[in-house]
Fold:
Amino acid sequence: QSKLANLLFNLELDRRLRAAALDVVAAAAHPGYAATELQGTSARLGGSRPQAAIMRLGNRLIAQPAARGALPSLYAATAPGVRGGDFFGPSGFAALRGGPGEAAASARARDAEAASRLWAASEEATSVRFPF
Structure:
């Protein structure tokens, strides 16, 4: 769900930047499965010790190092030719690990109407209005 929300929010930000004719690029990225201990901590805080243990094992066997998980974000922020609305993530096995590359976004993540509704809900929830 959070990946979908991030993509929708980014889509609406890109639309607003373009409408305001601002020379800014809004691109999105995801880290894949990075060994940050976030998964295990979340499971532990949720009261599931078995799930936390499984997550720790997954971090050791499947996940890529946290520093490698940061690469898609760095790529989105610095690579030449990145366009507004682009989406990046690991290019390896099941988009869980590997070097940065273009990532696939579902049709739901490209829904402009849903993106607009999420933006409005975010403004309502935070009482923050963006000027564009």
User: Anything to note?
Assistant: The first strand starts at residue 28 and ends at 29.
